[in-house]
């Protein structure tokens, strides 16, 4: 495998709330390789979006990165000043957000919003070249050049999301974060937008982290999946391994709850609810919902271990396995 373009190492993120400290991300580590598509899945509150926002240093409010490192091709992003990080955003790492409407400026034409990205990074093309460059960018994401002269309210949801993809790739970043980029779109448009994202990612040779909970979308789009539960990465493996032979009991239940035609009318959910991260359970955070829990599960947090080549699992059921410090 080539050298990782992004390394997340032992990331800890806390939210200070009136009710107490919420440990939203608890020691998450993974690598992302050039050209790779990695999915981060999990229930709401599992820490997947918080992890993505930390990578691009866009966490807000009471969120604080307590510990860890985020290394982007030799640059520890957590050590950068705000100005240095502003220069890295869009240029080396960019984000396609969840709600395009909230991220586009409603009173600016698309042309001006793309122009701003070039200007903020000192890469504004000559006046004679700018319109052509923006037209080319819009064409790459399947939009007509005329979209440049429009305001966001004149565009459909799918078109707005394509504009966000165009903005995300304007400076050809190495890493693109996509946080549930199609959650507000109908399934046909969803597929078109994901195809667009996949095509431009391949053209750029960029790596993508897709955050979401739609396992069908993950199956079609990503190479590897990281399963998050209660702020921890509990399994990290190829998409084939996750779907054909999931190892962690939570992943097994997650895959088992995907509806299929054979099991029509039989709805299988995961019993219980995700734990409060204000006061998480001792030991393995999944133990109150796990049918395979045994003695050590309530006492010790299972570390992420390599149980088979390139397959990492955090579960006491897999004690006698090879162990490395940092998941590949
Ligand atoms: Fe279940 Fe124990 Fe494994 Fe946690 S560590 S998933 S409780 S068997």
Summary keywords:
single chain, binds iron/sulfur cluster, 328 residues, 12 strands, 10 helices, 4-stranded antiparallel sheet, alpha/beta
Structural class: alpha/beta
Q: List the ions, cofactors and other small molecules found in this model.
A: iron/sulfur cluster
Helix content: 25-40%
Based on CA atoms alone, the radius of gyration comes out at 21 Å
Strand segment tally: 12
Overall 3D form:
globular
Order of helices and strands: EEEHEEHEHHHHEHEHEEHHEE
Distance between the termini: 9 Å
The average pLDDT value, as a whole number, equals 92
Q: Helix tally?
A: 10
Low-confidence stretches: none
Amount of beta strand:
15-25%
Biggest sheet overview: 8 strands, mixed
In the sheet with the most strands, the strands line up as: 6-7-8-3-9-10-12-11
Architecture overview:
The chain has 328 residues and is of the alpha/beta class. The chain has a domain at 244-328. The chain contains 10 helices and 12 strands. The strands form 2 sheets. An 8-stranded mixed sheet has the order 6-7-8-3-9-10-12-11, with helices on both faces. A hairpin with a 2-residue loop joins strand 9 and strand 10 (232-238). Helix 6 (157-169) packs parallel to helix 7. The longest helix is centred in the middle third of the chain and has 18 residues, at 187-204. The radius of gyration is 21 Å and the shape is globular. The termini are close together. The model has no long low-confidence stretch (mean pLDDT 92). The site of iron/sulfur cluster (SF4) has 13 residues, from loops. Iron/sulfur cluster (SF4) binds next to loops.
